[in-house]
Design brief:
Keywords: DNA-binding, Phosphoprotein, Transcription, Transcription regulation. It holds the Pfam family Response_reg. This protein is an alpha/beta fold and 211 residues long. The protein folds into two domains: 133 residues, Rossmann fold; 65 residues, Winged helix-like DNA-binding domain superfamily/Winged helix DNA-binding domain (Arc Repressor Mutant, subunit A). Strands 2-1-3-4-5 form a five-stranded parallel sheet, sandwiched between helices. Helix 3 links the parallel strand 3 and strand 4.
């Protein structure tokens, strides 16, 4: 079963989506939240496989809730489900750590498929969101890409250059392998490369790693 937490401040939306998801044999909505603060608390309490997160909610919005959840639980998989495609919503949500971004205009079965895909390790984005991201990245000079890496990501990139596997990196840094996978995925995304080899080549070309 894929355990899901659904956070949305509209009760009727929660009732409708929860009813459909609960009818699926492989999905179970284990908790609901009607604001961001409640979503953070229940995410850390239940540790669901997937969190469906609305963006505009009372008290604490979905972006701040996403930030707080990821800060305390980096492995969390959060799917934004919202009506907004504004740049000031899309980019902060993804930068906060959201894995996927869906619109409320999506059909119920599409939300269910997004849950399954995200659970399997994929990132699901609406076509409009993908277009926005690609346009933004095209405007960013290539030499600035690595400036987005955190210190931890730089540390993992160095270990990748030494040929270490995810498990070896996890053992050396005393972190979960799932956390390493999240960092590696973030590194590939920020450097706009397809695999670990390309990431290491990028690092050598930009003198991020001593030869």
């Amino acid at each position: 079963m894929i355990n899901v937490l659904f956070a949305d401040d509209h009760e009727m939306v929660r009732i409708g989506v929860t009813a459909y998801l609960s009818s699926q044999l492989d999905i179970d909505v284990v908790a609901e939240a009607d604001d961001g603060g409640d979503a953070v608390q229940k995410a850390l309490e239940h540790r669901p496989d997937i969190i469906l997160m609305d963006l505009v909610m009372k008290d604490m919005d979905g972006i701040e809730a996403t930030k707080q959840i990821i800060k305390q639980w980096p492995e969390a998989k959060i799917i934004i489900v919202t009506s907004f495609l504004d740049d000031e919503k899309v980019y902060p949500a993804l930068e906060a750590g959201a894995t996927s971004y869906m619109l409320k205009t999506s059909k119920a079965n599409e939300i269910a498929e997004a849950i399954r895909a995200t659970f399997a390790g994929q990132s699901i984005l609406e076509p409009e969101v993908t277009g926005k991201i690609m346009n933004k990245m095209r405007q960013k000079p290539i030499e600035e890409l690595h400036e987005q890496l955190t210190e931890r990501e730089k540390e993992i990139l160095l270990l990748m250059s030494e040929g270490k596997t995810n498990q070896e990196i996890a053992d050396e840094l005393y972190i979960a392998m799932k956390t390493v996978k999240v960092h590696v995925s973030n590194i590939l995304g920020k450097l706009q490369v397809q695999d670990r080899t390309q990431a290491v080549i990028y690092a050598f070309k930009h003198d991020l790693i001593d030869t």
